[in-house]
Structure formats: C-alpha cells, structure tokens
Amino acid sequence: MAQKGPSPEEVRLAESAKLAEDWKTVRQFMHYAMGMQPITQEHEQNFLRVRTEISKIQRALSQKLPAGISLNTALMTDLLKRIYSLDDIREKPAQDRQIYLLQWHKVRLSIAEVHGALQYIAQGYKFDSSTRVKAEVNVKGGDKNKNAAGKKKKTIISIVVLIALAATAYYMMTK
C-alpha cells in the first residue's frame, strides 16, 4: 500500500510556517546588527541564506495561495532589498532602522494572517473571501465606530447635566 503524500493544504501550511519562522530570524539578525557585537562573516552568510530562503518560499507560496488570500510580497521584497547585509543595517541612521523594524512588523502581520487562513483551510473549512472583514482600528486599538458612539453619548449626557444645573441655579435665584 503506497503512502499518500501531504495534501496541497498541508504543503501551503508548512511553507507559511517556515516563512514565519525565517521572518522571525530576520528580526533577530536585524537586532543583532543594531547592537554592538562584532559582525562575523558567518553571521553575514547565515543572514544571506535566510534572505534567499525567504525569497524562494515567498515566490512559491504566493503562487499557491487561494483567491482572497494574499501576502504583502511588495513590502517584504522592498525590505529585503534595503537590508542586504548586516553591516549595511548597522551603518544606517537610527531613524532608518526604526522604519525597517516597522516594515518588518507589517510583513509579520501579513504572514500571520495568511498562516491563519491556511490553518483554517487545512482544518477542512471553506474560505470565502467575501466574508472577510477588517475592522478599522485606531491607535489605541479600539474600534473607531465604537469610540465615536461612546464620545457622542458622553457629550449628550454632559449637555443634559449642564442644562439641569442651569435650571437649578435659575430656580434658586428666582425663589
């Protein structure tokens, strides 16, 4: 009896997990480059190997993703082009390095979103991109519409309290 190979869903899931793991390794290298430890040729070679591996996985995975699921490949590719060596990262101004970390986080969120969707599909669920909803979130992390409704309610209560105080003061003065 021949063993059946992994399903396409399992292959995609494994690739997205490997991409997430390698992407975390990029962050470790970035933090290492931003530190004061000496950068060896071995560090540079390992960093180059991880970058190459990410590029291969990203290209392969992007072609296999179902409709409605997409990886932020443009931002990922842009960042990998900008940080071509650890020495280059170290030589950049602090502001540029912070931008690199911000871009890294944006790509990490994209990878996590894709991995989650692929886990969902691998469990046997059908993915329907039309039901996918992204909530608008403000800086504090709350839903924008929820905060707007709460502010409006507080404003109305404040106005009612002020009117009641003014009416009480008027009543006391005319008595």
Describe this structure in words.
Helix content is 73%, strand content 0%. It is mainly alpha-helical and 175 residues long. The protein folds into two domains: 124 residues, Four Helix Bundle (Hemerythrin (Met), subunit A); 41 residues. The mean pLDDT is 84.
Largest sheet, in brief, is: none
End-to-end gap:
100 Å
**SSE order, as H and E?**
HHHHHH
The name of the CATH architecture of the largest domain is Up-down Bundle
Number of strands: 0
Share in β-strands: under 5%
- The poorly predicted ranges are none
Tell me, what's the shape? elongated
CATH topology of the largest domain: Four Helix Bundle (Hemerythrin (Met), subunit A)
List the SSEs and their pairings.
Layout: H1 8-34, H2 41-64, H3 73-82, H4 86-91, H5 94-122, H6 144-174
Which descriptors would you attach to this protein?
175 residues; 73% helix; 2 domains; 6 helices; mainly alpha; Four Helix Bundle (Hemerythrin (Met), subunit A)
Short description:
The chain is 73% helix and 0% strand. With 175 residues, the chain is mostly helical. The radius of gyration is 26 Å and the shape is elongated.
